[in-house]
Each structure stands twice: as C-alpha cells, then as structure tokens.
Design a protein that fits this description.
Blueprint lengths: L9 H6 E10 L2 E8 L5 E8 L9 H15 L8 E6 L3 E7 L6 H8 L4 H20 L2 E2 L8 E3 L9 E3 L6 E2 L18 H6 L10 H15 L13 H7 L4
Antiparallel strand pairs: 1-2, 2-3, 3-5, 4-5, 6-9, 7-8
GO molecular function: ATP binding; protein serine/threonine kinase activity
Protein name: CHEK2
GO biological process, one term: mitotic DNA damage checkpoint signaling
Length: about 240
C-alpha cells in the first residue's frame, strides 16, 4: 500500500493522489501518482521553483518548451504529457507511466539483449525518431536511459522515448550549433561544430541510434573514456569503436 505524499500543492491533491518516489533527475523528483477521476496511474515530475533558479526564468522556459514539444507529438513510442499544473511554488508535469523502467536497466539486467529483443526495441525507437523528425523535432540526447519500456514482458514491450530537455524544433533550412547531449552518444558533427563554426542537422539523432543499437547487442559502450590510446573525442571523430 502506497502512502499518499503530503508535500504537494492543494491544486494537485484535488486531482491526483501523489504516492511513492519513482526516481530523481536534474529537475527534481519523479513520483507515482493516480488520477482521482479514473484511477489512471501516471508519473509526476515535481519541480520546486525555489530550488531550480526560476528567478532567471530560463529554466522555466526550457521546461515549458519541453512540455510544448511533447504536447505537439502524438505517437505510441513517444512519452505523452497527461497534465501540467503550475503553482506559485511548484511546477508539476504528469506523464504517461512506463512501468518497466528504462532500456539501460534492461541491458544491465540481461548483460545484453538477444537479437530479436534488440530488433524490436530498435525498430520502435526508430519509429519514434521518424515521428520526431517528421515534425522537425531533434531530440539531441538519445540514449538507453531516455528510452523507457512499458512492460517487463518482452513480447508486450512498447518503447517510450522520453526526456526532451535538449530537444528543439528546427527550420529545415537552418543548422543547429548548440553543444549538448551525452558525450558517449553525440555525433561527430556536434563535436566538430563546438568552437569551430558550422552546424549540424537532425541526422545527429541517427548517429545516436546506431550507438544505442551497438550497446543493445554487445552490452558494452561503443566509445569509452578508459582507452589510453585515444580520447573520447577522437574515438567519435575517427569512428573507432571498442
């Protein structure tokens, strides 16, 4: 039996029972919540504004940009925003609940994925990314930790791409220039564009997909900081994998 969490705004309590912690991230705690009207189980990302430097407003703008992008997308393999409650002290974002955790945990549990399982996960992730790109959205931080799984039963698993904090909507005629993403999964174009001019396109997500597939079927990182002969940057630029 889950104990209801009292440390949430009354506006939230009126609609949801907020229960146990599911995890935490840079933006705050993620909690299990149940919508009172229909008992729908959801994940609630609760951001305490006083601890997240909201006076500058840039953090809130970034979060609301992520929410607006997610609301504009509609695909079975992309996590859905169910509700947003913005109060004086807290911003609460309610999202579809993926019961089985993330792909990184799944790979660690199994050491590596069997080929058929890897194919199913990768195919669904590709469908999600195609949907993003069809809507001119570039994710820019694709990695196993940002791919959630709906079910522990492999034959019933549906991939849910999440964490759009680095994502953006791009004009088809322009190039992106921001250095962002997770180092082990970023494309060479992003590395080269940093401090050297130029830019990159939505194709950087395709590079990340390839690295994710490698990790799925080998259980090992494609690039590592543990090599003595090549630094991580040179491994990526020279496309030298383990």
């Amino acid at each position: 039996m889950h104990k209801e969490n009292d440390d949430v705004p009354n506006l939230v309590k009126a609609k949801y029972r907020v229960l146990s912690d599911l995890g935490s991230g840079a933006c705050g705690l993620v909690k299990l919540a149940v919508r009172k009207s229909d008992c729908l189980r959801v994940a609630c990302k609760c951001i305490d504004k006083s601890k997240f430097n909201f006076p500058s407003n840039s953090s809130k703008v970034q979060l609301m940009k992520e929410v607006s992008i997610l609301k504009a997308l509609d695909h079975p393999c992309v996590i859905k925003v169910v509700d947003v409650i913005d109060t004086e002290k807290m911003l609460c974002i309610f999202m579809e609940l993926a019961e089985a955790g993330d792909l990184f945990k799944e790979i660690k549990l199994q050491t590596r994925l069997e080929p058929d399982h890897a194919k199913m996960v990768f195919y669904q992730t590709c469908l999600a990314v195609k949907h993003l790109h069809d809507h001119n959205v570039v994710h820019r931080d694709l990695k196993p930790e940002n791919i959630l799984l709906s079910n522990t039963l492999q034959s019933h698993q549906i991939v849910k791409v999440t964490d759009f904090g680095y994502s953006c909507v791009m004009d088809t005629s322009s190039l992106l220039k921001t250095l962002c993403g997770t180092p082990y999964y970023i494309a060479p174009e992003i590395v080269v564009s940093h401090g050297m001019g130029g830019g990159y396109t939505k194709a950087v997500d395709c590079w990340s997909l390839g690295v994710i597939l490698y990790v799925c079927i080998t259980g090992q990182p494609a690039f590592t900081t543990e090599r003595k002969d090549l630094c991580l940057k040179d491994q990526i630029l020279q496309e030298v994998i383990l």
